[in-house]
Specification:
By secondary structure, the chain is α+β, with helices and mostly antiparallel strands. The chain contains six helices and 14 strands. Helix 4 runs parallel beside helix 5. It starts with 6 loop residues before the first strand and ends in a 6-residue tail after the last strand. This is CCHC-type domain-containing protein. GO terms for molecular function: nucleic acid binding; zinc ion binding.
């Protein structure tokens, strides 16, 4: 599949600081992506699901049929906000009223409508049941038992990495993709497991405004000391890398975006490695540096 085979319909911000995008691509690739459930954008796994569309008539504003099939009342001259017919919605100063569900508080063309949400829920449930029937029809009894045993393990790569980190060491390293939710989850997990240091790549910039966070010059990596067990003597920050100077060693945390051009990527990696030659006692270097073409 080539890049030109993908049509981006919309990109919308979410309440957690991330973005949701709607794309159109051929059926084979769409089914494959939905089957996988996640894709990686940079270093962050993102959920993929089929978009649910409900057919709507823009003549009567009801659902379930198209305009050319409509036999209902013609509401094309009706204000979508208050149901009156003497003005348009953009000129309306009245209270919002939905002529579909007959309730106040939202317009007739908004997805907040309870009737619309009910149809979406029913369609989603129908698709989920259909997928479940297809999967069950191709599984043996042994596979079904294994699937039941694995049913509680559906976690993100980020949470898996955090769980592994808590079992092996006293710090957590994670890429949160600038999102509020994952950033807060990483912090809560680090506190819960009494971690000494929290390292975050692509941190949420509003969350690390606190002076307790140690950041690089681009705010691509950040570190937070959580306990008194670790004493930072000093630190230095560059473009995409951060060095913490402790009593016994230096800890390096680096991030280079995998989505830039290869020559820019190689230049950044070389600059970081030259910078690090000055630090000889490294306990560990956490370097999220893998280009998409590798």
């Amino acid at each position: 599949m080539q890049l030109q085979d993908i049509e981006i319909v919309s990109i919308r911000p979410t309440q957690y600081g991330g973005q949701n995008s709607t794309v159109v691509l051929n059926k084979q690739w769409a089914n494959e992506l939905c089957k996988r459930g996640t894709i990686r954008i940079g270093w962050t796994p993102r959920h993929v699901r089929q978009r649910i569309n409900i057919t709507r008539c823009y003549r009567c504003l009801e659902f379930g049929h198209h305009k050319w099939e409509c036999k209902g009342k013609d509401n094309t001259a009706t204000c979508l906000k208050c149901e009156n017919s003497d003005h348009r919605a953009k000129e309306c100063t009245g209270e919002s009223y939905c002529l579909i569900c007959r309730k106040n508080g939202h317009r007739a063309d908004r997805t907040r409508c309870p009737y619309y949400r009910k149809l979406i829920h029913e369609k989603t449930k129908e698709l989920a049941n259909e997928k479940g029937r297809r999967k069950d029809s191709t599984k043996t009894n042994s596979e079904k038992r294994q699937a039941r045993l694995r049913s509680n393990s559906g976690r993100t790569y980020a949470l898996h990495d955090m769980a592994y980190a808590t079992a092996k060491q006293h710090d957590i390293q994670i890429n949160v993709g600038r999102t509020y939710a994952l950033h807060d989850m990483a912090y809560a997990t680090a506190k819960q497991h009494d971690m000494d240091i929290l390292f975050v790549c692509e941190p949420n910039k509003k969350r690390v405004k606190d002076t307790n966070w140690i950041k690089d010059t681009r705010t691509d990596v950040a570190a937070l000391i959580l306990t008194k067990n670790v004493e930072v003597i000093g630190h230095s920050a560059g473009d995409g890398h951060l060095v913490l100077e402790l009593e016994t060693c230096d800890i390096v945390c680096c991030y280079v975006s995998p989505n830039i051009e290869m020559h820019q990527y190689e230049l950044k990696v070389v600059n970081i490695m030259i910078y690090l030659l000055a630090f000889h006692t490294l306990r560990r270097a956490s370097m999220l540096m893998m280009h998409r073409f590798w």
